[in-house]
């Protein structure tokens, strides 16, 4: 794989299928979310093998508040204990954590843990792990446009990019969605204009290095044209 230069540098993952993974095993949905964290750890651990520079994980959408309160609270608990348990090691491995989304709406304690993780890893220069939490692309675009209106400027496409949560990151080269659903579900709508999309039936908790490798191999065969001529 290393010999092939056609690697995506920014890989964004819509981690879907935790609930179905658990239900099929007669487990609770939260058990599925817990296994989802194990998959996140697996993918972070092997990102370097594939020369991936940025990993974005869609963890909680602005629409996921529609779920039962117990599930929402449970997901937040799982994210908090992930940060609690993994921050030291991530930091030691030079991982820089960033977030997309309105984290001020999250429970205070979780928000505090996230801010701690951001501060602790802000000067790290290795893999960027970008967590999309309480993230919705429409919300992000509306927020950006409102900021520009406040500044009273004529708006260009670059101006909007500069106000998105992802302003410091390049657009994703490759977006992977697990669980067989073929939609973006309000994920990175602006940034995904020329992203390559990949859908797999594998549920997120079962996703591992071999699935990532297969996805990246598929990416490597694609020709990105950005509206230009065929080669
Ligand atoms: C993805 O898994 C994780 C979140 C959206 C938080 P789901 O919880 O959506 O799993 P399914 O789609 O119900 O199987
Ligand atoms: C998308 O999955 C959101 C995340 C992966 C966090 P959903 O399960 O919420 O999406 P829909 O409802 O199937 O479109
Ligand atoms: Mg889902």
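^ structure tokens above, recovered residues below v
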């Amino acid at each position: 794989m290393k010999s092939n230069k056609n690697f995506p540098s920014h890989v964004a993952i819509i981690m879907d299928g935790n609930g179905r993974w658990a239900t099929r095993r007669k487990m609770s949905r939260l058990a599925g979310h817990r296994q989802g964290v194990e998959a996140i750890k697996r993918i972070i651990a092997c990102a370097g093998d594939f020369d991936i520079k940025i990993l974005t994980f869609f963890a909680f959408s602005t629409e996921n508040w529609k779920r039962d309160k117990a599930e929402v609270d449970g997901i937040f608990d799982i994210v908090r204990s992930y940060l609690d348990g993994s921050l030291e090691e991530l930091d030691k491995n030079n991982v820089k954590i960033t977030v997309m989304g309105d984290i001020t709406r999250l429970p205070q304690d979780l928000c505090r843990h996230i801010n701690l993780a951001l501060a602790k890893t802000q000067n790290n220069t290795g893999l960027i792990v970008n967590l999309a939490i309480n993230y919705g692309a429409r919300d992000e675009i509306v927020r950006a446009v409102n900021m520009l209106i406040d500044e009273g400027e004529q708006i260009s496409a670059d101006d909007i990019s500069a106000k998105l949560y992802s302003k410091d990151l390049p657009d994703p080269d490759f977006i992977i969605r697990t669980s067989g659903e073929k939609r973006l579900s309000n994920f990175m709508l602006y940034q995904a204009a020329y992203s390559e999309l990949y859908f797999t039936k594998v549920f997120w908790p079962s996703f591992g290095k071999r699935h990532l490798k297969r996805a990246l191999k598929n990416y490597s065969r694609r020709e990105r044209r950005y509206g230009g001529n065929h080669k």
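The domain at 10-136+172-220 is CATH 3.40.1180.10 (Undecaprenyl pyrophosphate synthetase).
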